[in-house]
Amino acid sequence: MHQPTPRARAWPLAGLLLLTSLASHAAPDGDTLMQKGGANPAAMPCISCHAPDGKGMAPAGFPRLAGLPADYIRKQLHDFKAGRRQNGVMQPIATALTEEEIDALAGAYAARPRVNVAPQPVGTPPEGSGAWIALRGAWDRSIPECTLCHGPGGIGVDPSFPPLAGQGAVYIENQLKAWRGTPAVKAHGKTRAVAAVPPSRQNDPNGLMQHIAASLTPTEMKAVAEYFGSLGDSSEPFDDTQHRLR
Q1: 173, 170, 168, 177: which is closest to 229 by C-alpha?
Q2: Signal peptide: which range, if any (predicted)?
Q3: What's the gap between Cα 189 and its chain centre?
Q4: CA distance 137 to 134
Q5: Is 49 annotated as a binding residue?
Q6: C-alpha to C-alpha distances, 90 to 83, 137, 208, 229, nearest whole angstrom
């Protein structure tokens, strides 16, 4: 009987090692990462907080990621890594993700359905309301309307200005607070002074959001967050013309 030479016996083993190597270097799949997390156990599954459909959990303050621009998601994860955006949950996760995993997740979420904003009534909103600030701003305090950057109806303008329509009110309000930080409180009577806490989010273009957040009152923050949180996701057929600026 013919006996294979040592070299011939080595070829199957080499092929197996090659296949194993190729598999280990295969590009990560974004949908799998959402469901199972990254290669590092610290990179936990996204769906735990952002829901299986990527629309977030509004009452808990976890944002919608479905339909966000890939470049925006990629930047936020890098900003978490760099500490430009501070969050006790997201910073360890972003740090544990590889660059390939970040790219895969950004692309997978961007490919999911964008927010489907329902048509809004035409008319002048009550002055000082959340809709007023969102659509008209408060120019006497140098606060531009939100839609100036975030697009008509808050649909977002790629890649720097994300959609506000369809995001949960709790999340939007929390981000405004993160951009503002906590102002210092002077001592008054028996009350001790409280030192200021710097903003935990410092990744906006030219500090624009920090200025706006510092200029809004807590009541205005809540009102404008609730306004955008009340828009979308409509069950009506998706109208792509509302995203024509994207």
Answers
A1: 168
A2: 1-26
A3: 42
A4: 6
A5: yes
A6: 10, 31, 23, 22
Residues 80 and 63: their CA atoms lie apart, in Å, by 15
List the Cα angle 204/209/210 in 5-degree steps: 100
User: Which is more confidently placed, 244 or 75?
Assistant: 75
Band the pLDDT of 245: cuts 50, 70, 90: very low
Q: How far apart are CA 85 and CA 71, in angstroms?
A: 16
List all residues 6 or more positions away from 53 whose beta carbon is below 8 Å from its beta carbon.
66, 112
- Region 30-114: CATH code: 1.10.760.10
Portion of the chain with pLDDT greater than 70, in percent: 85
Q: Is residue 243 marked as binding?
A: no
Nearest Cα to Cα of residue 106 among 138, 133, 79, 66: 66
30-114 with 117-233: one CATH topology?
yes
**209 assigned ligand-binding residue:** yes
Is residue 60 over pLDDT 60? yes
Beta bridge partners of 161: 157
Residue 141 buriedness (CB in 10 A; 0-12 / 13-18 / 19+): exposed
Residue 197, helix vs strand vs coil: strand
Q: Tell me what pLDDT residue 244 has.
A: 46
Task: Give the rounded distance of the alpha carbon of 130 from its chain centre.
Answer: 22
Return the DSSP state at 59.
G
Listed by start position, the domains of the chain span 30-114, 117-233
pLDDT tops 60 at residue 21: no
Distance CA 79, CA 83 (A): 6
Q: Is 34 within any annotated ligand binding site?
A: no
Known binding residue 50? Answer is yes
Query: Is 90 annotated as ligand-binding?
Result: yes
- Of 220 and 188, more confident: 220
